[in-house]
């Protein structure tokens, strides 16, 4: 199965944020969408570019990188954005909540 959107998100975040850690997980299967959909993603990104930035500013940087995907089919993007120091302490991102629409 081709993961066109997922690969595009990875490429754009890698280019735009030069992360020391990046995880992009297609969570569409957890939602009420057709099999093989690429509409819901969880992004864990660790970048020095987040230093001295508030959470909303970090999210804006991520959104700027993937604005094309968000305008063309990506319905939800769970963003977990950390500085390297925060990630060293945290080490893991929280699990996404269960979708109420998934049967």
From TrEMBL:
This protein's name: Transcriptional regulator BolA
Family statement drawn from the similarity comment of this UniProt entry: Belongs to the BolA/IbaG family.
PANTHER family in the cross-refs: BOLA TRANSCRIPTION REGULATOR, BOLA-LIKE PROTEIN 1
InterPro entries (alphabetical): BolA, BolA-like_sf, BolA/IbaG_stress_morph_reg
């Amino acid at each position: 199965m081709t993961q066109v959107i997922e690969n595009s998100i990875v490429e754009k975040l890698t280019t735009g944020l030069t992360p020391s850690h990046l995880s992009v997980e297609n969570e569409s299967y957890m939602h009420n969408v057709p099999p093989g959909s690429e509409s819901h993603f969880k992004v864990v990104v660790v970048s020095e570019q987040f230093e001295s930035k508030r959470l909303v500013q970090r999210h804006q940087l991520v959104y700027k990188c993937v604005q094309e995907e968000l305008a063309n089919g990506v319905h939800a993007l769970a963003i977990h954005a950390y500085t390297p120091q925060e990630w060293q302490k945290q080490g893991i991102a929280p699990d996404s909540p269960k979708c109420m629409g998934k049967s």
